[in-house]
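Q: What does the assembled structure look like for these inputs?
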Amino acid sequence: VQLVESGGGLIQPGGSLRLSCAASGFTVSDNYMNWVRQAPGKGLEWVSVIYSGGSTYYADSVKGRFTISRDNSKNTLNLQMNSLRDEDTAVYYCARVIRGVQVDYFYMSVWGKGTTVTVSS
Amino acid sequence: SYVLTQPPSVSVAPGQTARVACGGNNFGSKSVHWYQQKPGQAPVLVVYADTDRPSGIPERFSGSNSGNTATLTISRVEAGDEADYYCQVWDSSRDPVFGTGTKVTVL
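A:
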């Protein structure tokens, strides 16, 4: 089981960027998948999740600007980021989410190595 | 919003036991998960559902959850355990929340 992110880079404020996360060893569409980010020197911040059924949820800080999606043909997870701000600068990780069996919890079992997004003029 | 509070740092001598606390409201009804993050690396799950370990994680790592505090315990600490540790809670009633993180330093 492996996740590899790509698509990060330097982008000006107000710009757009699309991140991808290629999965191997399992099928993205059969799983809950999410994005987590970490600003320089800061802690972990959840960004977005897509359920196996297709429902999507976002942190308030990115709602209306970011869109999570899947490409089933490529077995990849994507994050479209629009209207980028300085505070979006971070390492972005994708992670596979595991649901509890008969217990209400979720956790992130496998993480990619991350891709760096820098928003700066 | 739900807040998970951790001490900023914990120091421990090699071979001793490190305990990292994570505080939140009504913890007893929630499952807590723990992640280890070494410098420049991605987080790694070390404990899930309060007390369970993923395959490949040493038995030296254990977890507990009682009242309003969850605890990650690292027994017989080694130099390679030096890292940041984050607790996390996520259930169907709320978005996932991470703790503030604790830096474990091996003296």
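Chain B touches chain A through 26 residues (CB under 8 Å).
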